[in-house]
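Exam review. A common question shows you a sequence with its structure tokens and asks you to describe the fold in words. Practice with the pair below. Do the first one on your own.
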Amino acid sequence: MKLYSYIIAFDTGLAPNPFWDELTLNVCKPKIRQSASIDDWIIGTGSKNVKTKNGSAKDYSGKLVFAMKVTKKMTMQNYDQYCKENKKKKIAFIDRKDWKRIVGDSIYDFSYGDIPRLRKVLHKEKDKPRDLSGKYTLLSTNFYYFGENAIPIPKEFDSIIKKEQGHLLIRDSETIENFENWLTKKYEANKLYGEPQLQWQINKGLTGEYEILCDI
């Protein structure tokens, strides 16, 4: 079991997508999506300067935005089919009555073969090489999503908090087990404790075109 840690600077609900009873990571973070395995933990901690609706900045640094234990891993092509059969609401769609449909992370349509077409909602063609280089989708039915209500991480786990871009890989089993015990005993799994920090940007863009930045 391993733990991957990174700073989630753009918490929009796209990557990860915590909706419809399963947290998924299908775009952005290609290196993590390639290498993570079932039963690994992935955590996203907050950024220092997150823009709020009123134009000010909020400091989420060092706080836990989400944690997922990988319960399924599949190719992006298989994920496209999985969503068509089981999670249709994760297929990106401009629904002006439900912003959660706009941040659906199934944005690549493999109906036309191995080279997918982009469902042009949040990402652009220029994002395609990075997204597709991840090759895989990570799914979790054992997750904790805090979003705008990100929680402090105890000092004893400072070593798992990433301080800059990229990701941190933790292999120390004792540290991972202690973190898992703290999280699972204190919080209820598969619950949304808050909305995405940048959800307001999705609502603001309802009348225009979207372009959401990605954590790399």
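Now try the second one, then compare your answer with the model answer below.
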Amino acid sequence: MPTRVSALKTSALNALAERLRTADFPLAADWETVNDWFGRWAALPELRAELKNHLHTLAPAEAAALIKASRETTTHFAWCLLDSPDDEFSFWLHEYKPQRDWRQGYADSVHNHRYHFCTTLLRGHYLHERYHAHLDPDTGLISSVRLRSQTQCATGSSGRLLADEFHRIPSAGTGTMTFLVKSRAVTESSVSFDPATGIGHRHVPVEVRLGELADRI
């Protein structure tokens, strides 16, 4: 269920939020336009300083809401800056762990997402790979992958990924942080594939499974 984390103080964050809220089209249906807006917004020279100020000036209740809506993954911490049920989008900071602390998991597997997103590197760098993925027609899981492109992304770079596209981040520099704007989910699940073992997985969020929970007891 969406979490209401909606306190924004910086002009940069507010400017992007207001542009997205006043769009005259469903955001998920035209994410290329969102990407055009985001690319120009992400190039603002004051962006990193304003995000830092935003975090430094959170009131205790605002900080508590942010922490409650955030989560740890196998490769990074996902900090939720804005997530209101009234919005078609949410804002996140991803703080990548030192490589030695990564556990085999999502970011370093070949995977897609349930949502579209745009991202910009606030600091650090990572290796970004895009893939063609073959889906088994019976299981819907990835059965094989083929590398499409490999890019070393540095501070200031930005881009977008749609829910039907597959990618992988096999490595990231220490201290790497990204800012993301995500659409609402456009699919109920996502899939991933471990190139080392050839094993595919499906990922279903808990909120989708709630309706089946009682029947499983």
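Model answer, second protein: The mean pLDDT is 92. The chain has five helices and twelve strands. Full marks require stating both points clearly.
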